[in-house]
Amino acid sequence: MHLGQTPEQERIPSQGSGGTHRSRRSRARITLAALAVGALAAAGLGVIAAPGGAATPTAAAVKAAAAQSEVPAPPAGFTTTWSDDFNGASGTGLETGTWKYDTGPGSSFGTGEIETMTDSTANVFHDGNGHLVLRANHTGGDPAAGWTSGRVETQAATFGAPAGGVVEMVSSIQQPDVSTANGAGYWPAFWMLGSTLRTGTTWPTSGEVDIMEDINGRSSVFGTLHCGTNPGGPCNESTGIGSGEHACAGCQSGYHTYAVQIDRSVSPEQIRYYLDGKQYFSIDSTKVDAATWSSAVDHPFFIIYDLAMGGGFPNAFGGGPNAATVSGGRMNVDYVAVYNKAP
After folding, report:
1. Which of 91, 247, 262, 267 has its CA 20 to 30 A from that of 278?
2. Do residues 134 and 121 make contact, with C-beta atoms less than 8 angstroms apart?
């Protein structure tokens, strides 16, 4: 769902190719195989071949990249289109020339969330150590109410792959440091929405690429494409076409890279999803009809981060916030980068 635009519907568990997922608004941050490949190759680190023609860094290379706090150099053959390493002063809010706040009640987003998104530095701020922080805070005695949090998106909606080219979107993120014992209802996400959503095309026709989502402190990641029509349609909305739940060990306690690569240089075109430089899911354009794919994928996107509380997706895995859910959980973002390879 997207605040002020066409909301998505709550997700329902699915046993189809997409696995269990929800059609949340849209979300994202990343480092994908190709990205890590070039940066790591430049550093003299080895890579191995991955499915779909992408290169994947070795385990040692991924570990080395994860230790870096600056935006990595582009992969071989790519150029850096845009990046942000969030070096704002401690306690300051967004750089509004680059980012904008999405504010308002979670009920506006169409996914059943219960938080209110604000522009307060209590919810969205730089920590002074090169990170953007989205923090969910709770007040009152009712765990199903009284939550505030943050949702932000890029001002630019220009990030995509031209015909015959490739784009990578990558972000280094620490998911909220919660567990299944105290994290019920937490729903961090890094994702993208199609630029045409801002010019009148409805969701999900305009396309949504969810790069990273986790729910309820499960130490996992979901990757999903939303497209076509809602409900149902070629993309099984509002579930979408997704990876299902993929294990993400240590993603609550440390920084990991989440990335997506849209490759329009191959036939069929392909979207590839990466965790710490390792591909774990892909979608070929032949999965849906050509018109649906083109409307959803073959255009630029804008990038979104948000930390929701409650909603259809967490509910599908055991429910929203309860008495044990801790207040103050943080989604920390180290950097985000967009890399392009020309046709």
Report:
1. 267
2. no
Q: Which residues contact 141 (CB under 8 A, 6 or more apart)?
A: none
pTM of the shown model: 0.82
Pick the residue with more confidence: 298 or 12?
A: 298
- The answer to whether residues 248 and 220 touch, using CB atoms and an 8 Å cutoff, is yes
79-to-39, 169, 171, 291 alpha-carbon distances in Å: 11, 12, 16, 29
> Tens digits of per-residue pLDDT, 97-120?
999 999 999 999 889 999 999 999
Residues 309, 311, 312, 318: is their CA dihedral positive or negative? positive
Report the C-alpha gap between 307 and 135 in whole angstroms: 7
Nearest to 275 by CA among 207, 217, 190, 194: 190
Task: Give me the residues paired with residue 151 across strands.
Answer: 306
Q: Measured between alpha carbons, how far is 198 from 196 in angstroms, rounded to an integer?
A: 5
The length of the chain, given as a count of residues: 343
Looking at 46-50, 59-63, 143-147, which range is the least confident one? Answer: 46-50
Q: Which two three-digit tokens encode residue 276?
A: 């710490």
Structure token pair of residue 76: 């071989």
The sign of the CA dihedral 120, 6, 10, 212 is: negative
Give the model's confidence band at 319: pLDDT under 50 very low, under 70 low, under 90 confident, else very high.
Answer: confident
pLDDT at position 11: 32
Q: How many CA atoms lie within 13 A of 108 on its CB side?
A: 12
